[in-house]
Write a structure and sequence with these properties.
Elements (H helix, E strand, L loop, with lengths): L16 E3 L6 E3 L6 E10 L3 H12 L4 E4 L25 H12 L3 E2 L6 E2 L1 H15 L2 E3 L4 E7 L2 E9 L2 E12 L5 H5 L4 E3 L14 E4 L9 H15 L15 E4 L5 E5 L11 H21 L10 E5 L9 E3 L7 H6 L6 E5 L25 E4 L11 E3 L8 H7 L2 H20 L9 H10 L11
Parallel strand pairs: 3-4, 3-10, 4-7, 10-19
Antiparallel strand pairs: 1-2, 5-6, 8-9, 9-10, 11-16, 12-14, 12-15, 13-14, 17-18
Helix pairs in contact: 1-3, 1-9
């Protein structure tokens, strides 16, 4: 029976908040926070690493809960419209299954360098896979704090329309991309490049339709065309990138006549500062509008039109949580292997210039060899009960620019979820697991690794 619409209601207020006299802080009274879930494994963040972590944990027999701040799974794939998927090949297990299922449903466009997916199909598939695995997932539930007892992470505090709630777990996996949970739990972290603390620029992806038979050959050629259009028409438009090999990228998608575009760049902003991200979104949307004035003048794109812009700004780099091992450019250059490896990476050092014109060497395009990522990079220093997966793992600015791509992040996630479930089954903490045996167990499940010749 529905309540009468005339019945007044009032939210319970178990605490009081007052503004201090300086108006620089508020004082909050002690309060009791209800527990919304008590799981074996809690995954915070439903992006590429988070969905893989939740699936592998649940398939490993752990009662698994995932909370996600957006209204869909997939993170940068879906809320961020990030195509293509880089470095997914030979990762095995859940990564391979995802690609196979996208392909079998007609939602995949194979390509040697730019393999892409249908975003809407990806959303539906990820939800189906989570339901099949028995993962309990909730949308619009951002984690805002960590619950820590004696150096062990016991869960997170979340804030949503339901109010402030606690999500408890035996193991927490931070898949926020920004290392939010680990940082709030007290883990040390690095931010930006050593020279000036600047991070890579952010990009707002957008999709276009009406592409027809057009297929981009080189980004540099497209850049030259845009510059000529601006010059010829005397337009007051300044491109947000130079003549580089990563923009503007017009990336064909499985749907005929549709493409994703990587072109906008906003600089000198901090992705964990909401004010900076807001400025970035506004500036990036203006850049999209400017680009849409130019693209129809490129031969083959005369009928192109904007389909949609991403709901989330593509943040390439923020916190790098300090772990028990720190990947460096030297590791990448020699193609280092590890006894406790959880996945591998073949993607190059892709540093989008953080400060054009500053004259600071970036290391972009440094020569590397395929390398492995050790389990120790997923274990934050000084904390128990927590793993990190995705671009926030332990590594240098240069190494991060390689392993941050979504195929590699998903490889980390499937390993983190498996490790978490194994730790729960042994009544152990993740740091107590033997790394070489973890590698072996992952290999038995089809996870791919590099050769055994370790330098």
């Amino acid at each position: 029976m529905n309540p009468s619409p005339n019945v007044l209601r009032r939210e319970e207020s178990p605490h009081r908040i007052r503004v201090d006299s300086s108006r620089t802080h508020v004082a909050e009274a002690p309060r009791r926070t209800p527990v919304a879930a008590d799981a074996d494994v809690l995954v915070v963040g439903g992006g590429p690493s988070g969905v893989a972590a939740a699936l592998s944990a649940a398939r490993g027999g752990a009662r698994t809960v995932l909370i996600e701040r957006h209204g869909l799974l997939g993170g940068m794939w879906t809320a961020g419209l990030v195509n293509p998927i880089f470095d997914f090949r030979k990762k095995g297990w859940i990564v391979a299954e995802l690609i196979d299922r996208l392909e079998s449903s007609g939602a995949w466009r194979p390509h040697p360098r730019r393999a892409t997916f249908n975003v809407e199909a990806m959303v539906r598939l990820l939800e189906a896979m989570m339901i099949e695995a028995g993962v309990s997932f909730q949308y619009h539930v951002p984690g805002v704090d960590a619950i820590v007892e004696s150096g062990v992470v016991r869960g997170v505090i979340a804030e949503s329309k339901a109010g402030r709630e606690a999500f408890l777990a035996k193991v927490v996996i931070d898949c926020t991309g920004d290392g939010d949970v680990a940082a709030r739990a007290g883990a040390p972290y690095e931010l930006g490049r050593p020279q000036d603390g600047l991070m890579q620029p952010m990009t707002l992806m957008f999709e276009i339709e009406g592409v027809g038979d057009y297929e981009q050959q080189k980004t540099a050629d497209t850049y030259d065309q845009l510059i000529e259009i601006i010059r010829r028409q005397q337009l007051d438009i300044e491109l947000p990138f130079g003549r580089v090999n990563y923009a503007p990228a017009i990336i064909l998608m499985p749907q005929p006549g549709r493409a994703a575009v990587q072109a906008t760049h906003v600089y000198r902003l901090n992705g964990i500062d909401p004010r900076a991200v807001t400025r970035g979104m506004v500036e990036a949307r203006k850049q999209v509008a400017d680009l849409m004035r130019l693209l129809p003048h490129i031969p083959g794109l005369e009928n192109v039109r904007l389909s949609r812009t991403a709901a989330a700004l593509g943040v390439r780099e923020t916190r790098r949580i300090c772990g028990r091992y720190r990947l460096t450019l030297e590791d990448l250059k020699v193609g280092r292997r590890f006894d406790d490896a959880v996945t591998f990476c073949t993607f190059g050092v892709d540093i989008h210039e953080p400060a054009p014109g500053a004259g600071v060497p970036t290391g972009h395009g440094a020569r590397i060899r395929p390398y492995e990522i050790p389990y120790r990079c997923l274990l934050p220093t000084g904390l128990g009960g927590i793993l990190v997966a995705g671009r926030c793992i332990s590594g240098s600015h240069e190494a991060h620019a390689s392993y941050r791509v979504t195929g590699t992040c998903m490889g980390m996630g499937q390993a983190a979820g498996f490790a978490a479930a194994w730790a729960v089954s042994e009544n152990a903490t993740p740091s107590e697991l033997p790394g070489p045996e973890l590698r072996q167990r992952l290999a038995e499940r089809g996870v791919g690794f590099l050769g055994e010749n370790r330098p």
